[in-house]
Amino acid sequence: MKRIIVAGGSGFIGEPLVRRLLARGDDVAVLTRNPSKVRAGRAVAWSPSSQGSWSDEVANADIVINLAGENVGGGRWTAERKKRIIESRVAATSALVEAMSRKPEQPRTFISASATGFYGDRCDELLDENSAAGSGFLAEVTKRWEEVARGAEPFARVVILRFGVVLAKDGGALAKLLLPFRLGAGGPMGSGQQWMPWIDRDDILRIIEWSIDRDATRGTYNATAPAPARNRDFARTLGRVLHRPAFMPTPAFALRLALGSEMTNEMLLGGQRVLPQHAQEEGFEFAYPGLEAALKHAVSG
After folding, report:
1. What is the domain range of residue 111?
2. Where residue 111 sits, what CATH number does that domain have?
3. Which pTM does this prediction carry?
């Protein structure tokens, strides 16, 4: 049994992760600002702005998992919202690193989320973990996020996972797409040429578990399936899975009008052709390496 702390453990990825770890027999505590929202695991109230009793839980844990951070797709990128997106990640990660530093002799693993937005919009370029950072807001956010996480390296085995688009019907991008596609109004965004790095949520949970259990896992990993898809092919495949047409594109100008140019260009019209080179080289096997099987699984739930 491992003592595990999960920051962000009541969210789209965090809650099913906590349930999976509990099923293994691990002791799992969820760091939360609102304990009433925690439905799995032991709720531990925390505030990243100050150390407190929660710090001892982190300092004594075998595994610390950091999924905390405001949803980047949860609303238009105003100046205030961009500030919250950055600060929510940097503050939470800094607080966890500081708490771990209070007991540097404790053997531990620190697994911290990041995102493929690190690479910026790179058109058709093949990208692995050795590729340089890109430009744009998301690239700057993830660079800062990862730099803070690496501050734990003197006293933890650090694993940074760059998530792609996580597929599950109860949240994330897929939940927003299901209704229009089921109504026959789905299709590509803009030209549909942009690449989408994606991953089934079960494979995200499995790669986190793999990172917990495998002592050799350390450094940065692209947590994406080995078959990134162009947006138009993603739309066609989702339409086929749902037995609905998927030829109605959403014009770029309409997306920019609704969400603003910066958010639209980076999140919807830009993309990254990302490959999970490190995980595959080290033996991780995806349960859902192909898009159609992953979408069937995600939609069936």
Report:
1. 3-168+197-225+274-289
2. 3.40.50.720
3. 0.96
